[in-house]
Amino acid sequence: MTEAVLLVGGQGTRLRPLTINTPKPMLPVAGVPFTVHQITRARDAGVTRIVLATSYRADVFQEFIDGADLGIEIVIATEDQPLGTGGAIRHALPYLQSGANEPVLVFNGDVLSGLDIDALVRHHVDGGADATLYLTPVADPRAFGLVPTDAFGRVTQFLEKPQTPEEIVTDQINAGCYVFRRSVIDSIPGGRSVSVERETFPALLAANSLVQGVVDRGYWLDLGTPMAFVQGSRDLVLGIAPSPAVPKPGAYLVLDGAEIASDAVLTGGSTIGRCAQISAGVVVEGSVVFDDARIADGARVTGSIIGAGATVGANCVIDGAVIGDGASIGAGNELLAGVRIWPGVQLAPGALRFSSDA
Ligand code: GDD
Ligand code: MG
User: Fold this and answer.
1) Domain spans of the chain, in order of start
2) Pocket lined around ligand 1, Cβ cut-off 6 Å
């Protein structure tokens, strides 16, 4: 038996307004909540039991995630107060069944990857390590945890979100998946907030525990920002990112009950949610349109997220924007890179235009 703890209790602040109603791991991606991609990948790697470490909007997980449907045992552990990443792992301890020396996997709940999970666990067990971290190289590591290793693959430091150029000692980052010897989880202090990155890993290194890193150069993405979220969704639909929950990759994905005009153009790994309506002459490219959204004639939506039940008026141009659930964008608006419209907001027709010919 292999057990895993899935950390899904964060507030998803950088993904607001999408995460006001829905916790980040429950946002729909390629037809299912994001967490289902992670759960089914873990299941296919031999994980038989997952403790979902929830806090923010735990009710949404309770309502929509059913282990029986997914072919795996799921136990939900809810923190009354968010305990941080390490505190959440410690809080999950009474829910685990593994023996003190057995490996327990931990996953951040917002990472999409092609990691060979089973190989990571085997590397951990074969090396007799206390903890084994999945690492990946990235172009700009500043938003992550930097994890340099020595010639033997031993972790030498853990630098979470480096503040100064001197701290950028490697491009190798914590990719958000670890294997712990269960007794390491026992040693995390209980009943208070703990950061696994800022407290637990540095403490293990200070105690001279064996902490190994495994560098994997395959697909990796943290879906924590709107543009990363759109990219992850696109990559799943196109089959660039692997998931058992996307059985048939293609140029786009249209979910049940959606109505698509015959001359609408859907490309670039777009997803059209359940019962959404895409009218004549609309172009949707590399975007995510949530359930029940409506896009009127001639609108152009690229690299954007259209929230559930939102409406986009005729001839709008939406590019690199996030439209909250139920918002209504009047005809002829142009919403460009980085614009976020809060849920339920109503934008008058033509209120925002940028083109010189407007
Ligand atoms: N249960 C619970 N309780 N979960 C939490 C809590 C909490 O208090 N706080 C955060 N989490 C969960 C989040 O839901 C997310 O799945 C995971 O822990 C990591 O939190 P993020 O907020 O996404 O962290 P990050 O992306 O800034 O940084 C982390 O991930 C990077 C890789 O994506 C760190 O682990 C970095 O070191 C790492 O490089
Ligand atoms: Mg993250």
Assistant:
1) 3-225, 251-355
2) 7-10, 53-55, 79, 82-85, 88, 108-111, 144-145, 160, 173-174, 176, 197, 222, 224
Q: Which fold has domain 251-355?
A: UDP N-Acetylglucosamine Acyltransferase; domain 1 (2.160.10)
Of the bound ligands, which one is closest to the alpha carbon of residue 51? Answer: 1
Query: What are the CA-CA distances from residue 275 to residues 205, 232, 289, 328 (Å)?
Result: 52, 22, 10, 17
Per-residue pLDDT, 81: 93
Q: What's the burial of 278, exposed, middle or buried (CB within 10 Å: 0-12/13-18/19+)?
A: buried
Residue nearest to atom 10 of ligand 1 (CA): 10
- Return the CATH class of domain 3-225: alpha beta
Tens of pLDDT along 321-348? 999 999 999 999 999 988 999 999 999 9
Instruction: Pick the residue whose CA is nearest to atom 1 on ligand 1.
Output: 9
Q: Of 59, 90, 72, 327, nearest to 193 (Cα)?
A: 90
The ligand whose atoms approach the alpha carbon of 7 most closely is 1
The protein residue with its alpha carbon nearest to ligand 1, atom 3, reads: 9
Q: Which atom number of ligand 1 is nearest to the Cα of residue 197?
A: 37
Confidence of residue 67 (pLDDT cuts 50, 70, 90): confident
**Residue 356 pLDDT exceeds 70:** no
pLDDT at 247: 80
